């Protein structure tokens, strides 16, 4: 049974955190139910839970992969195939899908599909889809929090988000590696990258390459396009993988490419820190706007402070502190400068 959000005191938050860390599915489900609960008491409880899950003196661990791209390219199917591949390699996996389809149909595509392929008694995999999409000004609160919860329980977290442009950029706040999934013949996405509308992904995936000939043609197209992206100033070669989620083609190669990128990250801790800072800033800006930012000394100063205070609480807790300070400043009270 899900805990009553308002009744989650310090010791039950601690117990829930311990259950999540011990990858107990019941505790993880409860934590994710709490994450989905939009009531203020639940948000406070999640904020406390994230604080309890975050161990400031332990270096960043695990691998967080964002799968992003236009609707219908096969991200959910690929997430399920990739999760199966990772399980074969002995790694534990948590999947969170922000599933716009479920908003339309009321169902959960990934959930259904994934359940088809996973052994329910497998303790090493957890799949959850959220019907909530992004919120104005960024990824949903639930997405950030769910990644933190799953990241505390599983070695690899896959995050599926739909969209190009802002979504692809925002998924960087939660993922160490961003894979952009497209389908053959989708040159428009590369135009976006070239035009600087979109950040450069870490890995480019052409899904629906269901037979070798199609895969070869799709990759040849992409290499040409990626070459012009690179010459437009995007730097080194972009790793590209052709996959078919339906027949399992290229999924192992994709897992390898994701690992290779992850190994090449020399500043995982810094990347995670910037994600946390961005989340806190987003929460604060959503509430108080640029006026709030200016009142507290400007963006650069606030970001520097958030970096410094990271160990003091979860990103929502730190955002809440800024918020209190802003409100105090509005009232002209002493304490406005602490
Ligand atoms: N032929 C082929 N079809 C695929 C492949 N991967 C997915 N599909 C199909 O494409 C459709 C969309 O797949 P999803 O996995 O739901 O795609 P998605 O990107 O998650 O979609 P949204 O979450 O709605 O953006 C489904 O009918 C899949 O069966 C593939 O590799 N080859
Ligand atoms: Mg999907």
Features:
alpha/beta; binds guanosine-5'-triphosphate; Rossmann fold; globular; binds magnesium ion; 3 domains; 338 residues; 14 helices; single chain; Single alpha-helices involved in coiled-coils or other helix-helix interfaces
Describe the structure.
With 338 residues, the protein is α/β, with parallel strands linked by helices. It has three domains: 57 residues, Single alpha-helices involved in coiled-coils or other helix-helix interfaces (Up-down Bundle); 202 residues, Rossmann fold (3-Layer(aba) Sandwich), CATH 3.40.50.300; 72 residues, no CATH class. Helices cover 55% and strands 12% of the residues. It contains 14 helices and seven strands. The chain has a seven-stranded parallel sheet, with helices on both faces. Helix 10 links the parallel strand 6 and strand 7. The termini are far apart. Bound molecules: guanosine-5'-triphosphate (GTP) and magnesium ion. The site of magnesium ion (MG) has 8 residues, from helix 4 and helix 6.
The major sheet is characterized as: 7 strands, parallel
Using the alpha-carbon principal axes, give the shape.
Answer: globular
Query: What hetero molecules are bound to the protein chains?
Result: guanosine-5'-triphosphate, magnesium ion
Q: What is the first-to-last residue Cα distance?
A: 41 Å
What's the number of extended β-strand segments? 7
Helices and strands: which structural class?
Answer: alpha/beta
CATH-wise, what's the superfamily of the largest domain? Answer: P-loop containing nucleotide triphosphate hydrolases
Instruction: List the domain count as a whole number.
Output: 3
The chain-level mean pLDDT equals 83
CATH class membership of the largest domain: Alpha Beta
Spatial strand sequence of the major β-sheet: 3-2-4-1-5-6-7
The number of distinct helices, counting runs of at least 4 residues, comes to 14
Rg measurement, Å:
20 Å
SSE order: HHHEHEHHEHEHEHEHEHHHH
Give the strand content.
5-15%
Unreliable residue stretches:
102-109
CATH topology of the largest domain: Rossmann fold
Residue share in helix: 40-55%
CATH architecture of the largest domain: 3-Layer(aba) Sandwich
